[in-house]
């Protein structure tokens, strides 16, 4: 009996761990020359599984892969996959939500504290020969008098909220799917998104990128924020209108930002965010640790293995079964 074929559309992680894991489970595995539709179709006509990192997987791609049963994302976000199109075709979409929870939460809190205590400005001042605690950076908050608003109380957002609360911050949480009891149990307050944005001294984003959340933080939302507030994003770049963010920072309304993700990656050389000293930039690195790097491709491959074996996997479009 011929074993199912699994196609890897693209992956920029080192090595062939995805293919090796699939083959060790007795599946056939091939990697496409690229994520282009013709390259995928050339190998994928018989594929029952697809592992994808950055390639755009549209309904048209799926139609060129008529035997496809599951798409597994190498990562947490899945906005490069047309999830509704997959559901309509009876194709499950799974992600890897647990491989870097600790890392992203830690990176987020590090960014919050770095900006809340003005560390980049202090560092620049000391290197330039200035030794003044008060003059280097006016933003140096006392946690107990500072509000952190966390948009999204999922795996990562809930850890960030609890961590900030443990440091003494007042924490507001906005998540329409969060349990009020769970939020209160974490010592936080559950509010609506507009109230969380307007009430934040520090705003951190932990929501999926969808049509509804794209540019969730736009010029209008930024205008409601407190003078000198800080925006932190380790989630998905397009949640923020970057031009509006840069304009608010240049105008002096926002005090600072810390960003690990961007609308286009790598961040464009001419991005206005690069020229602003009050913006802390990291290269989509919040997920990284040697342990996470090892786990990620294995988790993505195991989604396919377990799904084909009839086991439970983290499906993001459970209505796919209705179309079968």
Structure description:
InterPro entries: CtBP (IPR043322), D-2-hydroxyacid_DH (IPR050857), D-isomer_2_OHA_DH_cat_dom (IPR006139), D-isomer_DH_CS (IPR029753), D-isomer_DH_NAD-bd (IPR006140), NAD(P)-bd_dom_sf (IPR036291). Its EC number is 1.1.1.95. Residues 109-286 form the D-isomer specific 2-hydroxyacid dehydrogenase NAD-binding domain. This protein is an alpha/beta fold. The protein folds into two domains: 5-99 and 290-322, NAD(P)-binding Rossmann-like Domain (Rossmann fold, 3-Layer(aba) Sandwich); 101-281, NAD(P)-binding Rossmann-like Domain (Rossmann fold). The protein contains twelve helices and twelve strands. α1 packs parallel to α12 and α5 packs across α7. The model has no long low-confidence stretch (mean pLDDT 96).
């Amino acid at each position: 009996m011929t074993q199912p074929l699994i196609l890897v559309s693209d992956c920029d992680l080192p090595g062939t761990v995805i293919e090796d894991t699939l083959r060790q489970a007795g599946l056939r595995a091939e990697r496409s020359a690229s994520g282009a539709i013709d390259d995928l179709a050339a190998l994928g006509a018989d594929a029952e599984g697809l592992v994808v990192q950055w390639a755009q997987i549209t309904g048209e791609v799926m139609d060129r892969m008529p035997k496809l049963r599951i798409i597994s994302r190498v990562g947490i976000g899945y906005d490069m996959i047309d999830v509704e199109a997959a559901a309509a075709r009876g194709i499950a979409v799974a992600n890897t939500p647990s491989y870097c929870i600790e890392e992203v939460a830690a990176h987020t809190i590090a960014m919050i504290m770095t900006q809340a205590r003005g560390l980049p400005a202090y560092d620049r001042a000391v290197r330039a020969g200035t030794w003044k605690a008060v003059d280097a950076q006016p933003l140096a908050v006392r946690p107990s008098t500072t509000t952190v608003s966390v948009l999204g109380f999922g795996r990562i957002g809930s850890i960030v909220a609890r961590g900030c609360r443990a440091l003494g911050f007042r924490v507001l949480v906005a998540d329409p799917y969060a349990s009020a009891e769970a939020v209160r149990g974490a010592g936080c307050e559950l509010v609506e998104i507009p109230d969380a944005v307007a009430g934040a001294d520090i705003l951190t984003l932990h929501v999926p990128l969808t049509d509804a959340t794209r540019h969730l933080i736009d010029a209008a939302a930024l205008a409601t924020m407190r003078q000198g507030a800080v925006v932190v994003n380790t989630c998905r770049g397009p949640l923020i209108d970057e031009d509006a963010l840069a304009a608010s920072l240049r105008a002096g309304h926002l005090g600072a930002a810390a960003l690990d993700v961007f609308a286009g990656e790598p961040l464009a050389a001419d991005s206005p965010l690069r020229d602003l000293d009050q913006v802390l930039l990291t290269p989509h690195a919040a997920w990284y640790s040697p342990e996470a790097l090892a786990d990620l491709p294995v988790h993505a491959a195991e989604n396919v293995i377990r799904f084909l074996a009839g086991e439970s996997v983290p499906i993001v479009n459970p209505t796919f079964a209705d179309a079968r």
